[in-house]
Write a structure and sequence with these properties.
Glycosyltransferase; 10-stranded mixed β-sheet; 31 strands; GtaA_N; Glutaminase_GtaA; Glutaminase GtaA; binds 2-acetamido-2-deoxy-beta-D-glucopyranose; GtaA_central; 7-stranded mixed β-sheet; 17 helices; signal
Length: about 700
């Protein structure tokens, strides 16, 4: 800790020497990319790291890299300044600080010493309110106040561009035609735009090809707008006059034809004390997921919001008007997460957990079927699969911690799909298809990870039942759970040549860590038998207890190298010179099984101490790679001192990584860069793993 503080002082001296422009502070740290509006796989806009974490001067981007085109100006005493976005011309305001919480990114700016401007991006997170979680909208609040003791004439401008769906990187799609309109509902003025020829359940470069985009603001005196006119003409109009001409362009056309924008301006008159302006940005999709559940054909699931609000505009207006409640709720959630994390793991742990929240929840889609609600999850950036079991698994601590019912809603589609006979293999399915089409693999040819997925399903189902008290869930899914347990009984002690969740590292036989997960799965099954109270429960419990006891004993002979100093678990049996992060031991503690011998925990803690690098503990001896999610699992059950050191290294990685994109979970452990010889993961929900420590039962 002491060395870190010294380093920070040294760095800040360095930066004052290097530049005379006022430097922004970053609290609690500067992440590689900053979430702006991140609520779903499609409303997912960031400020990438090439901006240096400075809002004005760079374009906000979709997580996959496309420019989304979101501009902000402020006019002070007839002079226009840029506080967000890449438009050339007006001078950039000076950013003085950036801070993030679980739900907010807050930037403050000094404008020529005359006023202070604050831009607060709030992306609500609602673990206990599915309806509000289902509304794909996000807030931007802009506040201004005088900072030199004089009142100033102030106008605030913001626009979003057809680029929200322009797929800016794919040239072919800039020619897509869009249509637009505007309107007023209650007190909310809004622009609406959409592709002229939408295709439901279709993505292009990860962006949705269907749904209506909205940009809204509080209507009232001083509000002017411009809809669908070119970006340059609209922005010049504001720069020149401080207001807009309230005109809608009649002729709709391709996005690349003059780059239409959707703009609002607020004339605040003379401002001395603080005044606020509120914007809402978002997408409304009536149909959200195509799901093959228990029916004979796939069902088109609707956004939960659409079952309550008569129209998307009503939903938008309700969201916008709810700012007071939403910001209060966000404050409560922010402080709960921060204080719980801080109390249990200190500042490093609080910095990590709070950063993970919007990234994890931004992968979710709340859907309503004819029988129930579901949560779907997108495996963002690596394949784009839907409902990937071994992506839900690393993420699941955040859901257990915030509300275990969320985990049930994620597991439900997997159970329903397989229990209705749509998957032919005896082991658990890997995923349900490509987001947003959860139609499964009737031919059984998904990416097979038998032991990984069977164990994940059993462990997560028990974790849910333990936290929620819903034992009936175990009874309901007993046949499938028992079938998967047979796979583990058959194959987990001596795992055949196969993939584990770390599939980017390749297949391998006899993986020590994978075997441990399978064996814990068998042990968990004894608990499930007991808690379910099904016929023969006692007998079955005993069988699973005996089998797992034998397996764990054998495993300590097969998977551990005692001859080396310090001893450690190997990457795979019969390879004494290898090692791997033994992150699967985490579930033993999570489920409170007291099953894996205590000396294995101690041994691993002692070993991690010896291989801890600048940016953490490597994943295994195959390559120089590290996984932040699995380190969070391993750290959660390590000895406190080692745990603290691992969290410290993860924090250093988040601060030091040159990746400049929404936080990756896979990186080169020495450089913090994306692995040279591996995939570049971005923005994956697996960061929910940072909550591993918080999800443990409190002893
Ligand atoms: C801003 O421009 C208006 C119109 O040209 C002018 O009346 C006003 O005095 C100007 N205000 C300032 C502070 O320069
Ligand atoms: C930003 O800060 C620099 C250095 O102090 C100053 O020269 C410049 O005028 C400031 N710009 C604004 C818009 O405040
Ligand atoms: C487990 O192995 C037995 C014996 O080889 C086999 O009959 C059974 O089908 C296997 N069960 C599963 C679920 O793979
Ligand atoms: C896996 O380990 C077992 C036990 O040591 C051994 O008998 C078997 O040959 C190994 N399998 C492979 C493919 O190396
Ligand atoms: C390593 O040591 C532990 C405890 O001393 C023991 O239980 C385990 O069986 C040993 N493993 C091997 C492979 O010798």
């Amino acid at each position: 800790m002491a060395t870190k503080a010294v380093l920070l002082v040294a760095l800040s001296i360095l930066s004052t020497i290097k530049s005379t422009v006022s430097a922004s502070s970053f609290s609690p740290l500067r992440p590689p990319a900053i979430p702006l509006a991140v609520r779903s796989p499609y409303l997912n806009t960031w400020l990438d790291g090439d901006s240096g974490g400075i809002l004005p001067g760079s374009w906000p981007r979709f997580w996959a890299g496309q420019i989304t085109g979101w501009q902000g100006f402020v006019r002070v005493d007839n002079v226009t300044y840029n506080w967000m976005g890449g438009t050339c011309g007006p001078s950039l305001v000076n950013q003085t600080s950036f801070a993030y919480t679980a739900t907010k990114s807050i930037f403050t700016f000094d404008v020529d010493g005359k006023i202070a401007l604050t831009a607060t991006f709030l992306s609500p997170v609602h673990p206990n309110d599915l309806l509000r979680q289902s509304m794909q909208f996000s807030y931007l609040q802009v506040s201004v106040e005088s900072s030199d003791g004089n009142p100033h004439s102030i106008q605030i401008y913001s626009d979003i561009s057809g680029g929200e769906l322009s797929l800016s990187l794919a040239a072919s799609d800039k020619s897509s035609s869009i249509k637009w309109s505007n309107g007023l509902d209650d007190d909310v003025a809004y622009h609406k735009f959409a592709l002229a020829q939408p295709r439901v359940f279709t993505e292009e470069a990860d962006m949705a090809r269907w749904g209506d985009w909205y940009f809204g603001t509080t209507a009232g005196d001083g509000v002017t707008y411009r809809t669908g006119h070119s970006d340059t003409a609209t922005r010049e109009q504001f720069i020149g006059s401080g207001c807009l001409d309230n005109k809608v362009k009649e002729k709709h056309g391709p996005i690349c034809d003059q780059w239409p924008v959707f703009a609002f301006s607020h004339d605040l008159g003379f401002v001395f004390k603080k005044k606020n302006v509120l914007f809402t940005i978002g997408i409304a999709q009536q149909q959200v997921i195509n799901f093959q559940g228990s029916g004979t054909g796939s069902e088109s699931l609707v956004g939960l919001w659409s079952t309550v609000y008569g129209s998307a505009v009503d939903c938008l207006a309700a969201f916008h008007s709810d700012w007071d409640v939403e910001s209060q709720d966000a404050l409560i959630l922010d402080s709960k997460i921060h204080s719980n994390a801080y109390d249990i793991g200190g500042q490093d742990y609080a910095s990590l957990t709070t950063l993970a929240v919007r990234q994890a929840f931004g992968s979710l889609q709340v859907a309503q079927g004819s029988r129930q609600s579901y949560l779907f999850i997108k495996e963002i950036s690596s394949d784009g699969d839907i409902q990937t079991v071994d992506v839900i698994f690393p993420a699941h601590p955040i859901f257990l911690y915030l509300n275990p019912e969320l985990l049930k809603l994620l597991l439900d589609p997997l159970f329903e799909h397989q229990e209705s006979g749509h998957y032919p293999n005896t082991w658990s399915i890997h995923d349900l298809g490509l987001f947003p089409n959860a139609v499964g693999f009737p031919d059984g040819k998904d990416e097979a990870m038998p032991i990984e997925e069977c164990s994940d399903m059993i462990i997560m189902t028990l974790a849910y039942a333990l936290r929620s008290g819903n034992h009936q869930y175990l009874v309901k899914h007993w046949p499938l759970l028992n079938q998967w347990a047979q796979v583990l009984v058959n194959d987990s002690l001596i795992p055949a040549y196969q993939l584990s969740t770390d599939d980017f590292a390749g297949a391998l036989a006899n993986q020590t860590n994978l075997a441990l997960k399978g064996i814990i799965g068998v042990r968990a099954m004894a608990e499930i038998a007991r808690m379910s109270g099904i016929v023969n429960a006692n007998e079955l419990q005993l069988q699973y207890l005996e089998t797992s006891a034998q397996y764990i004993q054998d495993w300590t002979m097969l998977g551990i190298n005692n001859a080396t100093k310090p001893p450690h678990a190997t990457l795979a049996y019969n390879l004494p010179d290898t090692y791997g992060l033994l992150y699967n031991i985490y579930s033993d503690r999570l489920l409170d099984l007291d099953f894996v011998p205590e000396w294995v925990y101690t041994m691993q803690s002692n070993f991690y101490r010896t291989i801890l690098g600048e940016y953490g503990v490597p994943l295994d001896t195959r390559r120089n790679w590290a996984k932040s999610d699995w380190q969070a699992f391993a750290a959660a059950v390590a000895e406190p001192e080692v745990r603290g050191a691992m969290h410290d290294r993860l924090t250093r990685f988040v601060e030091g990584t040159p990746t400049a994109r929404p936080l990756t979970d896979l990186y080169d452990v020495t450089t913090g860069q994306f692995p040279k010889d591996g995939p570049s993961f971005i923005n994956r929900p697996v960061l929910g793993a940072f909550f591993a420590l918080l999800a443990l039962p409190q002893r």
